[in-house]
Amino acid sequence: MAVDEIVILANSFKHGGCCVAGISMRSGNWVRPVSAHPHGELYPYHYRIDGQGVGLLDVVGFDHGGDAGDPCQPENVEVGDGRWWRTRRLAREDAMPVLRPNLADGPRLLGNRGAAMTEEDALRGIDASLALVRPEQIEFRLDPPREGTAKRRPRVKFTLGGQDYDLSLTDTTVRPRLIRAGLGRHESADLGLGSGTDLLLTVSLAEPREGWCTKLAAAVMPTPWRSQ
Hints:
Elements: E1 2-14, E2 17-24, E3 30-34, H1 44-47, E4 58-67, E5 76-79, E6 85-89, H2 92-99, E7 116-118, H3 119-123, E8 130-133, E9 137-143, E10 153-160, E11 163-169, H4 174-181, E12 184-186, E13 199-205, E14 212-222
Parallel strand pairs: 3-5, 11-14
Antiparallel strand pairs: 1-2, 1-4, 2-3, 4-5, 4-6, 7-14, 8-13, 9-10, 9-12, 10-11, 13-14
């Protein structure tokens, strides 16, 4: 088994479990630990530390079995059976040198300017299925259910390098707040993120479904540095 430590930059809902990902403090590369479950989702017994879940900017360590060999998500590693451990939580001054070099400028995001990539293209092998972005504009929205369904749809619309994106919001912190806020558009302040606060998003390319790999907003957090 290999050992790695990552700073958590994504924690999102996935098939009744969670998807956790971050940047390795050892290699500087994105890492997404996945389980042997059908969709690779993680459950509390995988990631809970001293009875608590992991949070954004936590630095956590875990054992893994190496590259999971998924061309659609090249960052995936097979999580081991050992317990995770928390090293620390990154302070503002420590987060800046880790996060800033990993910001994606746009206008292309994870391979193209769209909200998804074809499964065919993804299976050819891609450079990345995770990206950290600092949007130029951002808006949160709760859409009504699609016809024949009952679930309301949390969304985030943002601009990156002049390109507009409108993605499903799957993170475990802001998504529940948006659902409680009700249908319609909501400012960041409405969701406890501060008024006019610069925000970072972690965008993830989901596993293939019906011929497409959809882009998802897997984390939302205020920038750890002051606006300049």
